[in-house]
Amino acid sequence: MACAKGLDKQDRGPVYVLAKLLPGAATMTTSLLVSTLMKSPVLSVAPDTLVDEAYLLLASRRISSAPVVDAAGKALGVVSLTDLLRIGRLQPASLAGIQPIDLPTEPVSDHMHKGVITVSPNAPVTAAARAMAEEHVHRVYVEQDGKLVGVFSIEEVLSAVRALRLEGPIGEVMTKPVISLPVTATIADATSRLDRAQVTGLVILDEYKHPVGVFTQVEALAARSLAPETKVEDVMNYAILTQHVKTPLYRAAAHAYESRARRVLVLENGDLVGLITGLDFARVLAATA
Question: What residue stretches are annotated with the CBS domain (predicted)?
Answer without folding.
Answer: 38-95, 112-173, 174-232
